[in-house]
Amino acid sequence: MADFKQAPEGASLGVKMMTWVDNRFPATKLYKEHLSEYYAPKNFNFWYFFGSLAMLVLVIQIISGIVLAMNYKPDAALAFASVEYIMRDVPGGWFVRYMHSTGASAFFVVVYLHMFRGLLYGSYRQPRELIWIFGCMIFLALMAEAFMGYLLPWGQMSYWGAQVIVNLFSAFPVIGPDLALLIRGDYVIGDATLNRFLYSTSWPCLLCWSAW
């Protein structure tokens, strides 16, 4: 068992609290290794910011999505009304919803810039091919995530957008109809589809964990 550190005599309350935390969780060590004393290359510049910025926007999306899900009803008869309820009656709901919807667009802008930086600097070359492939897989998963989130407000644009995308999957030979049925959860887009799409929005949590 590791020895516990002791706060110096006459230390402030903040130092004592941080010492107590460090004895149980290496918060200061992680801060130094990943932030204050992190070794960065000499050519570190503006283009390297977008990976961390994408992670920040993703965390904001997850938090705002959880808040929205607390008041959302994945039901064909109630989904649109629940969005109106969030906008009009939930304190700060309009702000959280707009932050979430605008954040989705902002996230893809940041990701595209991050991918452009990867192409510009040759980050896909040996020996980093697997990192590039894994990043592309995350990008495809997030595109699917954005598509699922687009349906949830249950407006006309949402409904017909989902109808078009699902019909594209049905065009696959042999497995197309079964694949479209699997995505919809029913023969028409309705309650089952809303439930599937809502609960599929837990993907970003897994993506954050995998990226970490």
From TrEMBL:
Gene Ontology biological-process entries: respiratory electron transport chain
Domain Cytochrome b/b6 N-terminal region profile: 17-212
One Pfam family it belongs to: Cytochrome_B
Residues passing through the membrane, by range: 46-70, 98-119, 131-151, 157-175
Record GO terms (molecular function): electron transfer activity; oxidoreductase activity
This protein's GO CC annotations: membrane
Family annotation (InterPro entries): Cyt_b/b6_N (IPR005797), Cytb/b6-like_sf (IPR027387), Cytochrome_b_N_euk/bac (IPR048259), Di-haem_cyt_TM (IPR016174)
Keywords: Membrane, Transmembrane, Transmembrane helix
Subunit-structure text: The main subunits of complex b-c1 are: cytochrome b, cytochrome c1 and the Rieske protein.
Name of the protein this chain belongs to: Cytochrome b subunit of the bc complex
Organism: Leptothrix ochracea L12
